[in-house]
Design a protein that fits this description.
The protein is mainly beta and about 300 residues long. The chain is built from five helices and 18 strands. Belongs to the rad1 family.
């Protein structure tokens, strides 16, 4: 390999899809992020207070060009807000703007430029920094032989968490097998409870797997961060979000964000309009519980 060759040169044909994916993990104004590059794609990681961590997976299949020349997996830090704002300058409403991303530049910058505009070109450089080590390893493990998991429509999940708003309070999430249901309960000046019953709400609670009663409490501000900036495109797509409770009560929340071009003529979308899985960005949140495991086995 040429020692002067960049670690990565890639092109994405829909910058708005990338903006949507990264915006989903932007829960406060000033956030530092770590980007990790590999032959499999790009992963962006953010965390808060050693209790909340989020990852955005941009697999190499999302890119129309992905040339990876690094040894190992380079990592660098940057401002998430600045990165999203920078990407937004390349996004034209109603148009699937394409960009090229290159790393590193001569001074270890992240380089971005537009590649599909005939009239003008946009070019940007972002300063990067040596990242601090991510301070905790989520090490997500199943809570038992049977997964404790459920899938709920993203719009319904966001609405439920918004309705439970009591800043500084915590939310208790309870799963029980009979009747199969999920309960969100908030304590504040009073208490509010929202129930998703598997058989009564099949349009909202899409899937449910639980073989025992389990209940954990989570800080409201961390739970809210998992849905507070879900892009409107995800809500309009009527997608589902998957929640899984792991060992020790660690909560994993997974969303899917489309990074397909808006035109149905795109080769990644077939004649029936179905998107191939490769055009999806995967987003995962990990939320630590407030208490030790209180499951009733």
């Amino acid at each position: 390999m040429d020692s002067d060759a960049p670690d990565l040169v890639c092109q994405l044909d829909n910058v708005q899809g990338m903006v949507d994916a990264l915006t989903a993990v932007r829960w406060k104004r000033h956030q530092d992020a770590v980007i990790e590059l590999s032959e499999h794609g790009i992963v962006l990681i953010v965390e808060d207070s050693n209790c909340l961590q989020a990852k955005v997976y941009l697999q190499r299949e999302l890119f129309v060009r992905y040339e990876y020349g690094a040894q190992g997996r380079p990592r660098f830090g940057l401002s998430l807000g600045l990165f999203v704002d920078c990407l937004n300058t390349f996004s034209v409403p109603g148009h699937s703007s394409a960009i090229e991303i290159r790393y590193p530049g001569p001074d270890m910058q992240l380089l971005l430029k537009s590649v599909d505009s005939l009239d003008s070109g946009i070019y940007a450089e972002m300063r990067t920094r040596i990242p601090e080590t991510i301070s905790w390893d989520y090490n997500f493990e199943p809570a038992g032989s049977t997964p404790l998991t459920f899938t709920v429509k993203t719009a319904a999940l966001k609405e439920a968490i918004d309705d439970l708003e009591w800043p500084g309070a915590s939310i208790q999430i309870t799963l029980q097998p009979a009747p199969p249901s999920v309960t969100f309960r908030g304590d504040g000046h009073g208490d509010l409870q929202i129930d998703f019953t598997y058989y009564a709400n099949p349009d909202l609670l899409i899937a449910f797997h639980c073989d025992r009663h389990v209940s954990h409490r989570y800080k409201y501000k961390f739970l809210r961060a998992t849905t507070s900036n879900i892009p409107g495109s995800v809500v309009r797509d009527n997608r589902g979000s998957k929640l899984t409770i792991g060992r020790g009560g660690l909560l994993k929340v997974q969303h899917l964000v489309s990074v397909a071009r808006t035109s149905t003529a795109h080769p990644h979308i077939d004649s029936a309009g179905y998107q191939q899985p490769s055009r999806i960005a995967y987003i995962e949140f990990f939320v630590k519980p407030e208490e030790e495991d209180t499951a009733d086995d």
